[in-house]
From TrEMBL:
GO molecular function, one term: UDP-glucosyltransferase activity
Signal peptide: none
Domain of life per record: Eukaryota
Listed name of the protein: Glycosyltransferase
PANTHER family (UniProt xref): GLYCOSYLTRANSFERASE (PTHR48048)
This protein's record includes keyword Membrane: no
Assigned protein family: Belongs to the UDP-glycosyltransferase family.
Enzyme Commission number: 2.4.1.-
Keyword Transferase: yes
PROSITE patterns, sorted: UDPGT
Pfam families named in the record: UDPGT (PF00201)
Keywords: Glycosyltransferase, Transferase
């Protein structure tokens, strides 16, 4: 009897990576009744950005996943030494022997399945060595957009084929012509900050170099959103097949898996939103690392108050020395302008942790001031909420540039802001961006609503992402028979 195909998924332990990985696994299982999936779980040796609670929810006996053909395997925990990018890559690679042991155990278990390949997170390229050693194909799941993926390939080629040192872009006026973008990129403003560091930058570009060794790349995007970038990747004979399969989102959210205190907090937020007029509230939220210094927070407060906006502001405490993630503020009065909370009472609400999905889908929310993490971008498009861009780190500046300049799906507060730059964005610029994103009958809002419709259409029968996932499943089935 022919054994059925099984895929081994290897996400990194970050909520913005593990949730999409689990969602694409669920989608694959729903589309192929003969497929099995094992998800290998790495864990940080410290409390992370909701990841622990989410992972625990997956092991819940009441989870619907338990009735499907998926299992979760916790890998032995490794130590994370330091906090920089190179330390992070070293931490991920330290799991290679554990991954090999886990995959070997599956292979030797005598089960009804045959491993058809490893699906690795975009930061887990070291696992390609494990797959090669075991004679297995590797696929990458890219949690960023296609344009950013194209940028990574381009910069890697510049380094390896033209001996270009990307650290030279840091203080330059260079305008980069990149195949996955229509417009030239202002390099110093928008390319990944990690590339301005020699060692970490080389680690980063080596990721793209290794993507070229894989059998295919799943990208969390859809054809209608990034048609130009996807066409450029398809035209590059040195890039493996690219499968746009998004938007892969946990639109049902996992907020119900948080503690009772956060559930009460969520209920309080939604009750407040229920009392606000439709499309009247601007939501400000900057992701798990999205904290500002006191001077910048005051500029945001001045902008909100002067503009008279109804607002919901997720405010997080600046990262303490030795901490990996910022914590929520317990007392906002110590850092906001004196009397701000009293003067904005009734029209504004300052919160710590935010149930982002539940907020974005609420009819009172009309605009989103966002750090432009790719998951947040896709969520805003899904719910038709336009963004005012305020990136922090990683590929967020690239995303902001793409949204504002390429796709015309966002307005700019800043597209080149970097978390550790020391720059303070003025209240005038913040107020201007919020006014633009909250305009009710704007062309921007119409374009975002149209893209929202296309994002949902991409996932249904014969939609672009539906068909792309079919092609990937065909590839898996073909490789499992060889």
């Amino acid at each position: 009897m022919e054994k059925l195909p099984e895929l081994v998924f290897i996400p990194i332990p970050g909520i913005g990576h593990i949730v999409p990985m689990v969602e694409i696994a669920k989608l694959l299982l729903s589309r192929d009744d003969n497929l099995f999936i094992t998800i290998l779980i790495m864990k940080f040796p410290f409390h992370a950005d909701g990841t622990d609670a989410y992972i625990e929810s997956l092991a819940d006996p009441c989870s619907t996943l338990k009735t499907q053909r998926v299992k979760f395997v916790n890998l032995p925990q490794e130590q994370f030494q330091g906090h920089g990018a190179t330390d992070f890559f070293t931490f991920i690679d330290s799991h290679k022997s554990h991954v090999k042991d886990a995959v070997t155990k599956i292979t030797e278990s005598g089960s009804e399945t045959r491993i058809a390949g490893l699906v690795i997170d975009m930061f887990c390229t070291g696992m390609i060595d494990v797959a090669d050693e075991l004679g297995l194909p590797t696929y990458v799941f890219c949690t960023t957009g296609a344009a950013d993926l194209g940028l990574m390939f381009h910069l890697q080629a510049l380094r390896d084929e033209q001996n270009k040192d990307c650290t030279e872009f840091k203080d330059s006026d260079a305008e980069l012509v990149v195949p996955s973008f229509v417009n030239p990129l202002p390099a110093a403003r928008v390319i990944h900050g990690v590339l301005f560091e020699k060692e970490a930058g080389n680690y980063f570009l080596n990721l793209a170099k290794r993507y070229r060794e894989t059998k295919g790349i799943l990208v969390n995007t859809f054809l209608e959103l990034e048609s130009y970038a996807l066409q450029s990747l398809s035209a590059d004979g040195k890039v493996p097949p690219v499968y746009p399969v998004g938007p892969i989102l946990n639109v049902k959210s996992h907020d119900d898996k948080v503690g009772s205190e956060k559930l009460n907090h969520k209920s309080d937020i939604l009750k407040w939103l229920d009392d606000q007029p439709t499309l009247s509230v601007v939501f400000l939220c900057f992701g798990s690392l999205g904290s500002f210094g006191e001077d910048q927070m005051k500029q945001i407060a001045y902008a909100l108050e002067k503009g008279g906006f109804r607002f919901l502001w997720s405010l997080r405490q600046p990262q303490k020395e030795g901490a990996v993630f910022p914590s929520d503020y317990a007392d906002y009065t110590t850092i906001l302008p004196e009397g701000f909370l009293d003067r904005t009472a009734g029209i504004g609400k300052v919160i710590g942790w935010a149930p982002q999905v539940a907020i974005l889908c609420h009819p009172a929310v009309g605009g989103f001031v966002s750090h432009c993490g790719w998951n947040s971008v896709l969520e805003s498009i899904w719910y038709g909420v336009p963004i005012a861009t305020w990136p922090f780190y990683a590929e967020q500046q690239v995303n902001a540039f793409e949204l504002v300049k390429e796709l015309k799906l966002a307005v700019e507060i800043d597209i080149g802001y970097r978390k550790d730059s020391g720059v303070v964005v003025s209240s005038q610029d913040i107020e201007k961006g919020i006014k633009e994103v909250m305009e009710q009958d704007s062309e921007l809002r119409k374009r975002v609503k149209e893209m929202s419709h296309m994002s949902k259409k991409a996932l249904v029968d014969d939609g672009s992402s539906y068909s792309s996932l079919d092609r990937f499943i065909d590839q898996i089935q073909s490789s499992s028979r060889t």
